[in-house]
Amino acid sequence: MPVCRWAGGHNDRVIPPWGLFMFASLSDRLQAVFASVRRETRLTPASVETALREIRLALLEADVNFKVVKAFIDRVRDRAVDRAVLESLTPTQQVVAIVRDELLALMGEGQPGLSSSKQRPQVVMLLGLQGAGKTTTTVKLARWLGEHGRHPLVVSTDVRRPAAIEQLGVLAAEASVRVHEPDHGTQVVARAEGAVEMAKSFGFDVVLIDTAGRLHVDDELMGELDALKAAVEPSDLLYVADAMTGQDAIKSAGEFHRRLGISGVVLSKMDGDARGGAALSVVSVVGVPVSFIGDGERLQDLQPFHPDRLVSRILGMGDVLSLVEKAEQVVTPEEATRLERKIRGNDFTLQDMRDQLKTVSRMGPLDRLMGMVPGMGQMASQMPTEIDPKALSHTMAMIDSMTPRERSHYQVIDGSRRKRIASGSGTTVQDVNRLLKQFMEMRRMLRAVGGASRSRKKKGGRRRAMPAGPRFPVR
Amino acid sequence: MSVFERLRTGLRRTAEQLVGRLDGLSAGRAAGGTAVDTLDDLEGILLEADIGVAATGRLLQAARDHRGDEDLRTLVKTELVRVLESPGPAPLIDAKPRVVLVVGVNGTGKTTTVGRLARLLTLSGDQLVICAADTFRAAAVEQLEVWAKRVDADFIRARPGSDPAAVVFDAITAGKARGRDVVLVDTAGRLHTRANLMDELDKIRRVAGRAVAGAPHETLLVLDATVGQNGLAQARAFLETAGVTGVVLTKLDGTAKGGIAVAIASELGVPIRYVGVGEQLDDLVPFSATEYVDALFEPVW
Fold first, then answer.
1. Which residues of B touch A252 (CB under 8 A)?
2. In this predicted model, what pLDDT tens digit does every residue of B153-207 receive, in sequence order?
3. What is the pLDDT of residue A371?
4. Which of A353, B95, B132, B138 sits most deeply, having the most CB atoms within 10 A of its CB?
5. For domain A122-313, which architecture applies?
6. How many CB atoms lie within 10 A of CB B281?
């Protein structure tokens, strides 16, 4: 997995690129499974069974609840051993599609982010076990809301843990978020109500209430949350869960949900190497969507959670939607239309590749993008720790050293032309060979995408049909 | 159909089609219906306790290989106790002062554990120096100072932002000079994936070894009972860098079982030494494999 180093005092550490982080191992295992399945032209019930066993192991090792795993495997098996699947011409791809569908079903269909409540001030409570990361998440969320045009106010109701209130104050100051801090408030409900009052009179439109960590079996403290909820009537109750949590996640989250009715889960500490299968379990058993994920110690390390994108990544199908969003920021509509026509017509040339590389370099760090490209997930994991930023300019230099004819008809580039291109761009013939190989690979991939986009049109719904479509390239 | 209904139906189906589903369960052994049901139950219990696929597989295999009259549950329980006790009893250390390092990732309850351990040791007649080497988290030092006062132990505190290794050295030197029995060291929480923080721990160890030969004599890894399979990765990393000699399992008063400690004992040979079972001062107790295994099979809900 490619990683980038982040320098700076105590926080100096290795950060996996966004999105590949913790599901990387699960993703790797599933990809290995599918790679073995794909070698067979026809599926047999036995080979399906082998794949299922691997999937089961991968999910269990990722801390997905064992009951969820069992039900999941059964559903996939039922659908995969269907005659129509086994006898179809692309059985492995169909199995992948089934696994993807079922994973998506596990992840639920909830909307990421906060509810779109009309309540003003909108009240959000953050709950969870001790040590889950509630206080940090409160400030991260406030910061995120501030960036999205809201005016948040935070308040701590953690009168138990020593220095919890101070911790919130320090973090909030760091994020330039306002804190409600009554002079002598040790009453949990009074502190929260005070914050809502303050928000009303000073025009804050969202109040975030940090609560003390508690065990779900602690009846007294759970009662305190009941009282708090009744007093401030929150629109969102976010349960903060540690990504390292194991099988117990569904019990604790389930009990919080039963008593209080949580509206979403925030998954914290996703920057470690935990695989976070607990997320899948909580969503599917408790029926509450993951709203946000915390994937680092910096206060900006909080993102809305997108289940469909994550599933695609788990399966190595790439996070096409995130990629498209990023691309839309840097590509003009005319450019996009021109490129789309090229891809449809299967006349993607080296010149286009050069233009694309230029665009890509405007989109952000390459290793982050790599994980989003279909089929590139595995490639990304084989990359050296740091991607050489010069590689991109070398590639462009090579294409710049080609004649227009070479750029539009790559087939004409023979040995002697390769030598000329290498010396012209200050690279080696091996580099040129590699570039051409990459280019042909890219053409092959784009041809498949072109096909998928046609089938997408037929089906209508773009979001669903694109990655799930049977013609989607899952090599 | 809602997700939950589907799950339930799925589970019912699982129950009906058990036979072929258990990994590696040979067809011959599967013939006896009740035995399979029990195996499946056991597998569920073990997996749900976070023991993990590999350790669960080994335990079930041991149960399957056994040809005897005991029921499977008893067999697995015996096997579990054997695994948990296999690292052997804690070695007797006659060093004075004995240096005990407490380590772990963030939010597992290290500081609280140090306070309770101080209480346990004081009760058994040891004189202590408590060292607050968590120079990073706000108020960690103050929190520990409260504990030190409660058990009337010497307290060596770090100046904020100072080098934790230097504080540890001071504490051990003070313990030597005052003739104390044990120096208890609380360290800052650190994710095991952060190399520079793990290096800091390594430095603490080296410096401690310079103050007293053989120090730290014990290194306890504090694990939250709710932790899943990641606990094994944590134990592996802390074993490598800090030479962990035992595990303290905290927050066992919830519904979590902390079964990953079984995998740790089984795969890394690190024993569980203490368990934290509540929020009171004396809620840290020496670990008993038999009691723990009984608790594993006792449904909390």
1. 226, 254-256
2. 899 987 767 889 999 999 999 999 999 999 999 998 888 877 788 889 999 999 9
3. 54
4. B132
5. 3-Layer(aba) Sandwich (3.40)
6. 15
pLDDT for B292 beyond 60 = yes
CATH 3.40.50.300 boundaries in chain A = 122-313
Architecture of domain A4-107: Up-down Bundle (1.20)
Assess A436–B contact: CB distance below 8 Å, yes or no: no
For B137, the closest chain A residue by CA position comes to A167
What counts of helices (H) and strands (E) characterise chain A? 22, 10
What homologous superfamily does CATH list for A320-468? Signal recognition particle, SRP54 subunit, M-domain (1.10.260.30)
A163, B224: Cβ pair inside 8 Å? no
Domains of chain B, first to last: 3-85 (1.20.120), 98-296 (3.40.50.300)
Task: Compute CA distances A200 → A151, A211, A424, A475, whole Å.
Answer: 11, 21, 68, 56
Instruction: Tell me the mean pLDDT in the region B208-222.
Output: 91
Asked whether residue A448 carries a pLDDT value surpassing 80, the answer given is no
Residue B180 confidence (pLDDT): 93
The CA–CA distances, whole Å, from B208 to A11, B135, B185, B204 equal: 25, 17, 10, 6
Q: Which residues of B touch A60 (CB under 8 A)?
A: 47, 52-53
- Are B176 and B212 in contact by the 8 Å Cβ rule? The answer is yes
Q: Give yes or no for A9 touching B (CB within 8 A).
A: no
Q: Cβ contact (<8 Å) for A74 and B14?
A: yes
Average pLDDT over residues A252-279: 83
Would an 8 Å CB–CB cutoff place A45 in contact with chain B?
A: no
Q: Which two tokens stand for residue A475?
A: 């090599």
CATH code 1.20.120.140 region(s) in chain A: 4-107
Distance from CA of B70 to the nearest CA of A (A): 27
Best mutation target among A69, A72, A74, A280 (most B Cβ atoms within 10 Å) is A74
Distance from CA of A244 to the nearest CA of B (A): 6
CA distance B109 to chain A (A): 8
* Mean pLDDT (whole number) for A29-55: 70
Q: Contact B3/A130, CB-based, under 8 Å?
A: no
**How far is B11 from chain A, CA to nearest CA, in Å?**
6
Express each pLDDT in A329-358 by its tens digit.
Answer: 666 667 767 777 776 777 778 888 887 777
* Rounded Cα–Cα distance for residues A278 and A275 (Å): 8
DSSP string, A300-339: T-EEE--HHHHHHHHTTS--HHHHHHHHHHHS-HHHHHHH
Give the per-residue pLDDT at A433.
92
A400 touches chain B (CB under 8 A): no
Q: What is the pLDDT of residue A440?
A: 86
Task: Specify the pLDDT at position A183.
Answer: 74
The reply to whether residue A67 touches residue B230, judged by beta carbons under 8 angstroms, is no
